[in-house]
Design brief:
Layout (H helix, E strand, L loop, with lengths): L4 E3 L4 H10 L5 E4 L5 H6 L7 E4 L9 E3 L3 E5 L4 H6 L1 H6 L1 H8 L4 H6 L2 H5 L6 H4 L38 H7 L4 E6 L2 E6 H4 L18 E8 L12 E7 L10 E10 L2 E10 L6 E2 L1 H7 L9 H6 L13 H18 L2
């Protein structure tokens, strides 16, 4: 393993300073460590220093606020999955967290780390392959194995975003809290992730010295006397029942009042380099009477711009069926 210096800052400002002052910009943030340590051991990254957020106060925990819910970046995935408010009001997030990886990883992995984990593409993860995402000059997947790659949104690089929680958070219009040397800022989750068309070397818009410090979730809207509390779910297709990444996943959130769908949000994972919002499905559902919703037709609208590769066309069918199933399950009552 490549040697590195290990730092445990006590404040957000100290962490930001360590990141920005590091020679050559070779410092890496570590949270639970389940992804970064693997990358170091496999020789994919060689940080000069590793900056832990474990000792920074206030970065772990879940708190109800007047506007909704605040989740610290160092909150473990297990705590997110078990929290009663998340299970009741943000169910798809609890289900995504609860089905993520294995119990051991959920007990040490953090929400911030899960949002910022690197892609799982075989070619990126191979220590002897210098692909585009590692600064090389080609994507080896184009003439190789494309089974797990994206079916939309690829641009020279065809990864899929590996985070389950990112997909679930997308349907709640979550915001990402970012800390850095110049202070703190908040971005809508849809503006936080960046596809390879923006920067092939990274997956977020974080600048040097910046890191995720928390996530905020807005309070569900009150639909009035004739409304029901919004309901959500998360479905995940994978090759193994446990400890595996999604082939395709879907988060669906629906709010119904007086027999009509008032709000709809549908996001897909495993199909694009960023969490993918199925906007045509949402447009079909909003304003439509529950009795007139055709879940199969809604599912067929999931990825209208799909461009599958040699080995991954199955993802389009899988996405359509998961969206159909999710909508039908939420509306069956």
């Amino acid at each position: 393993m490549h040697p590195f210096q290990y730092h445990e800052p006590q404040t957000l400002q100290e962490a930001a300073t360590l990141l920005t002052d590091d020679q050559g910009g070779a410092a890496h943030i570590i949270a639970g460590g389940s992804d970064l340590i693997d990358e170091i051991k496999e020789g994919i990254v060689s940080p000069a220093s590793v900056v832990s957020l474990a000792s920074v106060p206030g970065l772990a925990g879940i708190a109800e606020t007047g506007d909704g819910l605040s989740i610290g970046a160092m909150t473990t995935i297990a705590d997110v999955a078990a929290h009663p408010v998340i299970r009741a009001a943000y169910t798809s997030l609890a289900e995504a967290a609860g089905g993520l990886a294995t119990p051991q990883i959920r007990n040490v992995g953090t929400l911030g780390g899960n949002l910022n984990q690197r892609p799982r593409c075989w070619y990126y993860r191979h220590p002897l392959t210098q692909c585009l995402k590692k600064g090389g000059d080609r994507c080896f997947a184009l003439v190789g194995n494309t089974k797990y790659l994206c079916v939309t949104g690829g641009d020279r690089c065809y990864i899929v975003h590996p985070s389950d929680t990112a997909v679930a958070l997308s349907v709640f219009d979550a915001s990402i809290e970012i800390s850095g040397g110049s202070g703190s800022k908040t971005l809508p989750i849809g503006e936080f992730f960046a596809g390879p068309g923006v920067d092939v070397l990274r997956e977020t818009v974080l600048e040097p010295g910046e890191f995720v410090s928390g996530v905020t979730l807005p309070r569900p809207a009150d639909l009035g006397a004739g409304g029901q509390p919004p309901r959500s779910l998360y479905l995940k297709a994978r090759e193994r029942e446990a400890g595996d990444f999604a082939l395709v996943s879907v988060a669906v959130r629906l709010a119904v009042a007086d027999g009509t769908v008032q709000q709809a949000a549908v996001a897909l994972g495993g199909v694009a380099p960023v969490p993918y919002r199925a906007t045509q499905v949402e447009e079909y559902l909003v304003g439509r009477a529950v009795s007139e919703v055709d879940a199969a037709h809604a599912g067929s609208l999931s990825i209208p711009d799909a461009r599958p590769m040699t080995d991954n066309g199955y993802k389009v069918t899988m996405a359509n069926n998961l969206v159909k199933q999710g909508i039908a399950r939420l509306l069956e009552d």
